[in-house]
Each structure stands twice: as structure tokens, then as C-alpha cells.
Write a structure and sequence with these properties.
Helix content: 40-55%
Order of helices and strands: HEHHHHEHHEHEHEEHEHEHHEHHHH
Radius of gyration: 19 Å
Strand order of the largest sheet: 1-2-3-4-5
CATH topology: TIM Barrel
Shape: globular
Low-confidence stretches: none
Number of helices: 17
Structural class: alpha/beta
Length: 335
């Protein structure tokens, strides 16, 4: 099974680039930029990557992001992740980035987007991995603050495909960002949003009805509402589920209790993703390996999950078909 997963062609649709920041690289960039971090060693950073809830994680996530200052830093961060994609047979990835995490501390939007997008261009050429960018708004900030970020992004529209919504979900419902998402859609961005990770089913209703999302990030709590499940299926919206993230942040106590298989059986279109792999103990393949073991998923289940990752990506249909054909060939030879 492990070998099957490792060789399985797949896409990743829920990945925060700041959350792919490995302790070793963080240490190197901090040293390069002469920035003091509250850790004396890589081991100390690794030990700090242990959380009890989403807020614990976010506190250290933002602390780590502080060392990112230059275009080269954002390039190195992104290219390091894309190299890991190449080793995992990830053919395509949709990368979330949080501009406000950086602009709020004086780093320009241009520095962030140019570093990330240049790494994506180089990975397409050198590693044969396609990618697109999802500009994520921080929901713990005001809508006004997020509208400023939308404004900053307009000159770089050609580099960004989607807008998303992340950070602390509790008390920050999707409806808080109604105007922001209307304006983002008018600018041509595809909307997605984190919903139903810590928030209840109502947050998912708001994401699909008010923000008009084309995909739901996480969505675990859709299971609270049968009517909502039927609506998600009717609208053909995929859920980008992140198993190791869910256990790390105590959304699920044990992977054996993860609702992924139940969601699949109900007819929901599920994809597997790593979310913030440096913090949650595993890249994409590790998420596949661990959830397969915990829920005794079959090769057919894994094939379906990988197929969903291409089908519900924002790639054009011709490219989707090419990847799915490769996946089908692989599956027929290895099932």
C-alpha cells in the first residue's frame, strides 16, 4: 500500500506555503536575514511544533513567518515545497499564501507574490509540476483590512487564480466577508474558503450561499447537517480534507475516528491534503499513508481520492484529462 501511494499520481489542493516552512530552512533564513528567533536549535523548533488547538498552532505559525523578508526568502520557501512535491508524484498543486501575515509587518505584496510565483514558474520548467496560487484572507482581521489586500493584489492578478479564507474560524463567520468576496469575484478570482473545521455546519452554509465558494476547505462539520450534505453533493463541491492536521489540532482525537470514509460513502467528493505539512507531521504522501492505515482504505478508495484531486482542481479540462488518464493507467496496472 505504501508503495502504491508513493507512486500514485495526485494533486494537492489545500496547502499553506507558510505552513510548509521546515525548521532547518527557518533557521537558515533567520541567520541570513540576521533575525533573532526564540529557538536555539532546529530541535527546539521541532519541539515547539506541538499544539492543542488551532490557536496554539497559529501563534507559532505567525512567529515563524516573521523571518521571511525578501523575494529570495519566499522563493526558497516555495521551491523547497515544490521539490518535495516532485518526490511524491504530485503533478499539480494549488498553493495558498497569506499576504497580510507579511504586509502587516512591512513586507510588500510585490515581494511576496514575486518570490512565490517565480518558484512556481521554475518548478514547472525544471520539475514538471504545475501550480496555481490562492490568495487567502485572514479572517481574524477586519473586512476593511482584507479589502486593502484585494486592492494590493490587482496589479498582480495574472499570478493569482483564487481567493480563500483562513486563520481563526471561531467567531469569524464567512458572512463577515460578504462584500470582500463579491468584489473578489468581480475581479475574476475563484472563491474558496475554510469552513467547518472548528466552525459548525452553519459556517459551511454561509460559505456556499454568501461567499459562493467553488470548493470547501476542510468541511468536516458538514456531517452535522443532512440537508447540507445533500446540498454540497447537488452543487458538486469538493471538500479538501486534511487528516494529519485534523488530529494535530484536535479536530479529530484519533485517525481511526476520522470521518473521511463516512464522507465518501455518503457521496461527498473528498480530496486528501497536507494543510501545513511542516507543523502537522507529514507531507501529502504521509497523509495518504496514515489515513489508509487508520481506515483500512482500499486501492480503489485511494484511486478515487486521487482522481478527485484532479477533477476538482482549477486546471483546464484538457490538462485534467491528461492527468486522469495517467492515473487510470497506473491504477489498472497496480490494482
Amino acid at each position: 500500500m505504501k508503495k502504491f501511494i508513493e507512486n500514485l499520481p495526485k494533486a494537492e489542493l489545500h496547502l499553506h506555503i507558510e505552513g510548509s516552512f521546515e525548521p532547518k530552512l527557518m533557521f537558515e533564513i533567520a541567520k541570513r536575514n540576521n533575525i533573532k528567533i526564540p529557538f536555539k536549535s532546529i530541535k527546539e523548533i521541532e519541539n515547539a511544533y506541538k499544539f492543542n488547538c488551532l490557536q496554539d498552532f497559529l501563534d507559532i505559525y505567525y512567529q515563524g513567518a516573521n523571518v521571511l523578508q525578501t523575494e529570495q526568502d519566499f522563493y526558497d520557501l516555495t521551491y523547497s515545497y515544490l521539490q518535495k512535491c516532485a518526490k511524491q508524484n504530485i503533478r499539480h498543486t494549488e498553493i495558498m499564501f497569506d499576504p497580510q501575515t507579511h504586509t502587516d509587518r512591512g513586507v510588500s505584496f510585490k515581494t511576496v507574490i514575486n518570490g512565490i510565483s517565480k518558484a512556481c514558474e521554475d518548478a514547472q520548467e525544471k520539475l514538471n509540476i504545475s501550480s496555481l496560487l490562492i490568495m487567502s484572507y485572514l479572517r481574524h482581521l477586519t473586512e476593511e483590512d482584507c479589502l486593502k489586500t484585494l486592492e494590493d493584489s490587482i496589479p498582480f492578478k495574472d499570478k493569482i487564480t483564487c481567493v480563500g479564507l483562513d486563520s481563526s474560524e471561531k467567531d469569524n463567520p464567512p458572512s463577515k466577508f460578504k462584500n470582500l468576496f463579491e468584489k473578489s469575484i468581480n475581479e475574476g478570482f475563484i472563491p474558496v474558503a475554510h469552513a467547518g473545521e472548528e466552525g459548525n455546519a452553519d459556517y459551511i452554509w454561509e460559505a456556499i450561499d454568501i461567499l459562493k465558494v467553488k470548493r470547501i476547505d476542510h468541511g468536516n462539520n458538514s456531517l452535522q447537517d443532512e440537508k447540507l450534505i445533500n446540498e454540497i453533493i447537488k452543487r458538486d463541491l469538493a471538500l479538501t480534507v486534511c487528516p494529519l492536521s485534523n488530529t494535530a489540532l484536535k479536530v479529530v482525537d484519533d485517525l481511526k475516528d476520522h470521518p473521511l470514509k463516512k464522507m465518501m460513502n455518503l457521496g461527498l467528493k473528498i480530496t486528501i491534503n497536507s494543510d501545513d505539512p511542516a507543523f502537522f507531521g507529514g507531507q501529502l504522501n504521509e497523509n495518504y499513508i496514515q489515513i489508509q492505515k487508520a481506515l483500512d482504505l482500499s486501492k480503489k478508495d485511494l484511486y478515487e481520492l486521487a482522481k478527485n484531486s484532479f477533477n476538482y482542481s482549477f486546471l483546464d479540462n484538457k490538462t485534467k484529462e491528461k492527468h486522469i488518464k495517467e492515473l487510470e493507467n497506473f491504477y489498472s496496472k497496480n490494482k
